[in-house]
Amino acid sequence: MLITDTSYRLPRLTALRYNDTFTTGANQPGLVAARNQQTRQLIDCVVKFRGGERMTPEACARELLAAFIAKEWGIRVVEPVLVDVGDEFVELERGKPHYQLLAKSIGLNVGSVYVPGYDTLPVHQPLSAVELPQAQHIFVFDVFIQNADRRAEKPNLMANGQELVIYDHELAFSFIQALFKNAKPYQLREQDRIWIENLFLLAKIKRFPLPEIAIQEAFGRLDNKFWDKAFELIPPEWRTDQLPEIRSFLTEIVNNSDLFVQSVKPFLV
After folding, report:
1. Sign of torsion, CA 189 194 196 202?
2. How many independent structural domains does the chain possess?
3. 177 and 219 assigned to the same domain
4. So what's the pLDDT on residue 48?
5. In this predicted structure, what is the pLDDT of residue 43?
6. Predicted pLDDT at 27
7. Other C-beta atoms within 10 Å of 208: how many?
8. Cα dist. 245→175, 192, 203, 248 in Å?
């Protein structure tokens, strides 16, 4: 469901039971059983605890915003949720290795619905005809939001033979950290070449023409209605000055999306 659909609600869950730790992530996300506060449904979710080394309020907002953009583009992304971590939940884990992490994460945390039955897409496995257009959209998405973190050694992408699912975007929108920002963000610079050529999916989609019409349609969905709804969904305590800056930078690309796509195409030769 698109976030601009009138019926869309960002689920808010209450953490009930800690089940496991994903040790490969820098933030040590946890697999948690939680209850949807509105529907009362029990859900297994992956929580990126605010006590993690990178999970600042800005990082939490970036994680949500990237998921919202992906959803609006029709890219399958792990379903974002908000997870309340309370004192009782934390106390149940006293004495365990992750206790201090949880103790520093009391309050609202960002998470996603756990997706079983998917595996990391092998580096050297070619894409199927079904996967190719999905991968092309994900590649353009990563270049658009400057997400350099989807690399061969860390794909942040799952597959089941038919569908690609992306996750882990707290490091996206790297342009906000740049000392010298691109005055024309719709024109990629030579210095962008290094991180773009390291993107996991580039080698898999080279020599295939981009579905330009579908990509242009995706850009067109990032209008004022989208941005207003996205900012509304992000908790107030995570809304910082980064968000308007991100909106301004990406809107410049959207307004010149044809030039942006032409700037991306040389990487696919």
Report:
1. positive
2. 2
3. yes
4. 97
5. 98
6. 80
7. 13
8. 10, 19, 31, 5
Integer Cα distance of 222 and 257 in angstroms: 11
Domain match, 198 and 158 both: yes
Query: 61-109: per-residue pLDDT in tens?
Result: 999 999 999 999 999 999 999 999 999 999 999 999 999 999 999 999 9
Query: What are the strands of the beta sheet with 119-120, ordered from one edge?
Result: 119-120, 157-159, 164-166
pTM comes to 0.97
Token code pair at residue 146: 């400057």
Render pLDDT for 223-242 as a digit per residue (tens, 0 to 9).
999 999 999 999 999 999 99
Give the pLDDT confidence score for residue 151 in this predicted structure: 95
Tokens of 76: 């399958």
d(CA 98, CA 215): 42
Q: Are residues 136 and 255 in the same domain?
A: yes
| Distance between CA atoms of residues 233 and 68, nearest Å | 10
CA dist 235 and 175 (Å) reads 23
Distance CA 66, CA 119 (A): 21
- Angle (CA) 266-268-269 rounded to 5° is 70
Domain that holds residue 179: 119-268
Is the same domain home to 139 and 250?
yes
In this structure, are 64 and 171 located in the same domain?
no
Q: What mean pLDDT value characterizes the chain? A: 96
Q: Are 85 and 15 in contact (CB under 8 A)?
A: yes
Of the candidates 59, 91, 113, which is a domain's last residue?
113
The CB density around residue 86, as the number of other CB atoms within 10 Å, is 12
Q: What is the pLDDT of residue 179?
A: 85
CATH of the domain at 229: 1.10.1070
